[in-house]
Amino acid sequence: MTLADETLALGVELLRLSGSPSRPRQITLRKAVHCAYYAAFTALCEEWARTFQVAARPTASRMLDHGVVKTACGQIAQGTFKSGAICPRDLVVCARVLPELLDARFDADYDSTARFNSSQVLLLLGQAEFVVRALRAARSICRPELHLFLLQCAGAKR
């Protein structure tokens, strides 16, 4: 089980522990939202690190910047890479979901007026699970496009 899997599982467990569906504890829901984003972001970092030699992977997994990833995803969500190559549908969905998860995580962590409900959090966890699975599947389904996706998320200029 990878760190992304464990983070996602923790988010699901937090949702389960959040209390009554009619009156869930906000702190528990907030932490589940936090886990949803970090499961997806960690999966992205894990895939990025896999492109490096084994010895460099621990350092490589810390190279991605949240803001750069969000900007890159905004561009990729249009369906093409900077190079003009067409982006596969599942990676386009990942590019649309990652910024949404980041915004939700930001609200959960920093906006004391933000309120969450169990249904919202369940949806965010489902989206995070999609990202984790889609990134892994892309290794075998569309490896060159995954590499373009990762390079753009890392801030490559072309």
Describe the structure.
- By secondary structure, the protein is mainly alpha-helical.
- It has 7 helices and no strands.
- The chain has helices spanning about 5-15, 25-50, 55-60, 65-75, 90-110, 120-140, 145-155.
- Helix 2 crosses helix 5 and helix 5 (about 90-110) packs antiparallel against helix 6 (about 120-140).
- It starts with a helix and ends in a 5-residue tail after the last helix.
Q: Topology of this protein?
A:
Blueprint: H1 3-16, H2 26-50, H3 57-60, H4 66-76, H5 89-110, H6 118-141, H7 143-153
Helix pairs in contact: 1-2, 1-6, 2-5, 2-6, 4-5, 5-6, 6-7
The pLDDT mean sits at 94
The total of helices stands at 7
Q: Overall 3D geometry?
A: globular
Helix content: over 70%
Output the radius of gyration.
16 Å
What is the element string, with H for helices and E for strands? HHHHHHH
Distance between the termini: 34 Å
Count all strands and give the number.
0
Sheet with the most strands, sense and barrel status: none
- Derived structural class: mainly alpha
Strand content: under 5%
Poorly predicted segments: none
List keywords for this structure.
single chain, mainly alpha, globular
Write a compact overview of the structure shown.
By secondary structure, the chain is mainly α. It has helices spanning 3-16, 26-50, 57-60, 66-76, 89-110, 118-141, 143-153.
